[in-house]
Design the sequence.
């Protein structure tokens, strides 16, 4: 499940322009439109990593490039069944080619897809399974959503229809929007960090879920790690406690050490950080966004939670 690195550096030059020129009513061909697409690409490829879920992986855990964004990745839930990510390329039959901008945005932020998306398929439900982290994407701003859609419109159509899911209909529960706690000491940087921890999915991987039938995160363990992943060939990998707790979290780490973990995949002892921590992708984060994440991580409640040790992941 090694995540492949996406060449986000190429676009860094354009991004600062995009941040200034957040004109979301730009039309194709204009300079503002180019900036919107570049900013959408930064959000999709570097901040959120939509392709990490919306692509098939090869045996070594890298995205199969010809099927990038075409879906088909399997998310198994033991005896319950499995769900497969969907094709989000511009293909008219299998992807989002016929969806309106508003329909795409509603799907991403609320997990509800338009009824016409079911036509001619074996799909029966317009509520997405919550593996698609729409509860966190509900935090995405209107401007950022518009830029994401502008970028998705540039993704070339790929003809590929992912397998139908095999989960019981009752497993499709509409999860409410998930608001993250405000930073304990407010600042513009920490508020930006709160936003990035939501849409960059730190919260998704670093927070355990409530015991079923309850839905959503166990906020008494917010960012305290211990959420587990099945990662062949390594086995079970637990996410780390990234709260400021000194004994079990990263309270004693310097910003430089956190940055090395976040962007180079080495912990404070020089050990390689296991997948699925997407450090290759986060290597492309703008430095102001990295600073914003530090500001937020220093200002969330310290939670004592000793996470089980992970194997070595060379
Ligand atoms: C953690 C994995 C994951 C991430 C990250 C993710 N998705 Fe999804 N997404 C899924 C899965 C799985 C489904 C299908 C759910 C289902 O069938 O109920 C889905 C469904 C969708 C759909 C509905 C498509 C359809 O035909 O029903 C859209 C649109 C979508 N995702 C867009 C995005 C975008 C854009 C991003 C990045 C901002 C993203 N997703 C990030 C897993 C993910
Ligand atoms: C797809 C899941 C996933 C996402 C998204 C994710 N992480 Fe992680 N992260 C992990 C896992 C799993 C580990 C533990 C790996 C290990 O111990 O080898 C980890 C480890 C870390 C570590 C190292 C801590 C330690 O004690 O070794 C830091 C720091 C970190 N993550 C920060 C972040 C931040 C900040 C974000 C959001 C910008 C983020 N992560 C997003 C899964 C994820």
Sequence:
């Amino acid at each position: 499940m090694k995540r492949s690195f996406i060449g986000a550096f190429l676009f860094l030059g354009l991004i600062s322009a995009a941040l200034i020129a957040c004109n979301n009513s730009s039309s194709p061909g204009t300079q503002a439109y180019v900036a919107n697409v570049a900013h959408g690409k930064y959000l999709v490829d570097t901040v959120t990593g939509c392709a990490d879920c919306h692509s098939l992986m090869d045996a070594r855990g890298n995205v199969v490039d010809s099927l990038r964004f075409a879906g088909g990745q399997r998310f198994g839930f033991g005896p319950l069944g499995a769900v497969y990510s969907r094709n989000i390329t511009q293909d008219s039959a299998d992807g989002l080619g016929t969806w309106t901008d508003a329909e795409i945005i509603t799907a991403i932020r609320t997990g509800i897809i338009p009824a016409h998306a079911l036509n001619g398929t074996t799909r029966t439900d317009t509520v997405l399974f919550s593996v698609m982290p729409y509860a966190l994407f509900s935090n995405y701003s209107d401007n950022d959503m518009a830029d994401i859609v502008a970028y998705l419109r540039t993704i070339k159509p790929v003809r590929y229809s992912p397998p139908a899911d095999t989960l019981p209909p009752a497993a499709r529960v509409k999860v409410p929007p998930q608001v993250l706690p405000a930073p304990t000491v407010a600042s513009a940087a920490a508020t930006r960090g709160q936003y990035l921890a939501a849409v960059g999915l730190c919260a998704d991987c670093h927070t355990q879920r409530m015991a079923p039938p309850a839905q959503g995160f166990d906020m008494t363990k917010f960012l305290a790690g211990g959420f587990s992943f099945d990662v062949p060939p390594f086995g079970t990998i637990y996410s780390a406690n990234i709260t400021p707790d000194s004994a079990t979290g990263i309270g004693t780490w310097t910003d430089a050490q956190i940055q090395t973990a976040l962007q180079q995949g080495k912990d404070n002892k020089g050990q390689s950080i296991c997948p699925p921590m997407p450090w290759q992708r986060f290597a492309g984060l703008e430095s102001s966004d990295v600073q914003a994440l530090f500001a937020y991580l220093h200002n969330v409640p310290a939670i004592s939670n000793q996470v089980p040790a992970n194997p070595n992941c060379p």
